[in-house]
Amino acid sequence: MFAAALMLASASAVHAQPAPAVPAASAADAMSTGEVKKVDQAAGKLTIKHGPLKNLGMDGMTMIFRVQDPAMLDQVKVGDRIAFVAEQPKGQLTVILLQKLN
Known about the structure:
Blueprint: H1 2-16, H2 24-30, E1 31-40, E2 45-50, E3 61-67, E4 81-87, E5 94-100
């Protein structure tokens, strides 16, 4: 009986622990680098010449991205090297994380 209670308590403890939000390897795989080619404050968009977007299965090219937070546009200017994460919420390419490299 004690063994059954111990197993039940152990199983509950496993289910009570939260799962990690995003594994570190996944975050690193989603990060890409590029160069800002245009900042469009009015439209809330960046044009980026980037390397492969592994998390989206895209090769390197120059593309226009929406930004998740308009404040991101104030952090960069044309010619800046950046590291970023892009996703496609609602089918729209969107920068969700942005870091200036230079």
